[in-house]
Design goal:
Helix content is about 10%, strand content about 35%. It is built from 1 helix and 9 strands, in the order H-E-E-E-E-E-E-E-E-E. The longest helix has 24 residues. Strand 4 and strand 5 form a beta hairpin. Strands 1-9-3-6-7 form a 5-stranded mixed sheet, with no helix packed on it. It has a 4-stranded antiparallel sheet with strand order 2-8-4-5, with no helix packed on it. It has a single domain, classed as Galactose-binding domain-like (Jelly Rolls, Sandwich). By secondary structure, the protein is mainly beta.
């Protein structure tokens, strides 16, 4: 074979070698990290235990959508839940049980009849524009110690929930995140006015076609 033919074969081999990494890179699956940080104004009256037999409570849902992966649905994975926030005017906070239910059905108790005579959770505007009470694993005060003086002042600031939000890490992210509020006593009434949620999650993204 002539020198010219050997050079041509060398160039072909070089092109083939250098094209392979680019093709592999183009076909690589990526792991995307994303966040959900939102608040839903609701204005939902909480059924009173005595006036409504077996009062079921009220619920508000925040949907989290994740794109399909290679044409099939994917659930994604929760990597952190920073906080859950609520605005609930109520004349006796100690009547209330507040739960967060994940898309996979895992239930986290945020508060179970805490706060005594406090006038509910949060102050100001009865919507996301008000001052919401925040449940966070990093809060310095536990919710079980809220309102030690048993005053009528609404609960405010941040509290650690009854159960850690961190236990949701690793669960499915896609679907409806539901806040459930029930009133276990009679006479005093209230409204679920706002539900805020902040979390991060990961999902897979395929190569561009």
């Amino acid at each position: 074979m002539s020198r010219l033919g050997l050079v041509a074969l060398g160039l072909i081999a070089l092109v083939a070698f250098t094209a392979s990494p680019a093709a592999a890179k183009k076909g690589k699956t990526k792991t995307i990290t994303a966040g959900l940080n939102t608040c839903l104004s609701t204005a939902l009256a909480i059924p009173d235990h005595l006036t409504t037999a077996n009062a079921p409570g009220v619920q508000a849902s925040i949907p989290l959508n994740i794109p399909n992966f290679r044409g099939k649905p994917q659930a994604g994975v929760v990597t952190s839940v920073s906080s859950v926030a609520v605005r609930i005017p109520h004349t006796f906070a100690g009547d209330l049980t507040i739960l967060l239910v994940s898309p996979s059905g895992q239930v986290i108790t945020l508060a179970n009849k805490r706060g005594g005579t406090a006038d509910g959770y949060g102050t100001g505007t009865t919507s996301c524009g008000g001052s919401l009470v925040v449940f966070s694993d990093t809060a310095s005060s536990p919710i079980f110690g809220a309102n030690p003086g048993n005053t009528d002042t609404p609960l405010g600031g941040s509290f650690r929930p009854e159960a850690p939000l961190a236990s949701l890490v690793g669960s499915a992210a896609k679907g409806n995140w539901v806040l459930f509020v029930s009133d276990g006593q009679g006479v005093d009434v209230g409204v679920l006015d706002a539900f805020g949620l902040s979390l991060t999650y990961q999902y897979k993204k395929g190569p561009k076609k």
